[in-house]
Amino acid sequence: MTQIYVPTCGSYFVPVPNQKFKNSKSNLSTTKGSGHLNLKSGIMAKTACIVPITQIILDEEIYPRSGVYPKRVSLFAENMRDGFKIDPFEVQIHPEHDDKYRILDGAHLWHAYKEIGATEISVLIIALDGVDPILYAAKKAIGHLQLTEDEAGTTARRAYENNPRLTSFEIGQAIGRSRQAVDAYIADLRAATRSKPDLIVFDPPYFKKQSNNYDSDGIAGMSKANYLKFMESFVASAHLNAKKSTHMAFINADWCDFQSTPAKNETLVNSILINDYLWILNQSGWQETQFWVEADTCRFLN
Fold this sequence. Notes:
Elements: E1 8-15, E2 43-52, E3 56-57, H1 70-81, E4 89-94, E5 97-105, H2 107-115, E6 120-126, H3 133-141, H4 149-162, H5 168-175, H6 179-193, E7 199-201, H7 224-241, E8 247-251, H8 274-283, E9 287-292, E10 297-301
């Protein structure tokens, strides 16, 4: 006869002090200056259960430590044998195996239970509800002992690879490191994820400022009104014919006292500001995604 084990459980909600997570695409957000991660509502659902030890696994993909400390395991095991009350440790339902639980906090306790031959364990099943499990596990781990430099770097990289939209501040708050330290950990990963635009549009015409360097039949010979009409037609056509995932970079390499003409001496007759281009691009259906003031560079999504 096949026996199906049904764990004994009881659901409840408990406040989680100093922790606030945001359920979003980036999975995790923090409040600057608080020094803590927080749950969006300040409350996390926990379910107290007794489950077979065989259903609990240590997932190396989210475990922030490079290993367990044998002395710590032995100390827990000794306390268990002596009858000390041990609080349940935290697990979550494994995302790939409904009949398994992976440890969020309590790897040493789990090893200690195995050492004394326990067959069932009291646990708290945590409903993360979109919270990044890598960073949640890291935050719980540093409550006992700070991560080593290697552990912090590895965890930061895992978290970023799992979700590139996480900021250095968010990762740093979880692993106990500064934003600058996290920047160094993931610099190469960030560089690899930065994609080049599919279409690049360079400088607007200089009109009379460099008329000797332009073909008389080129766009530099147009009036401001005709040039803007041309640009409007061009970007509208590009939007219509480009695939939906197309990124376009619009680069206006202008600077103060351009071509030895101070800004206060610029004539408004042919002056084309970034506002003009923004209006045309947005009216044509392009969505602005990034803006760099230093180089007057904008990027748009089709």
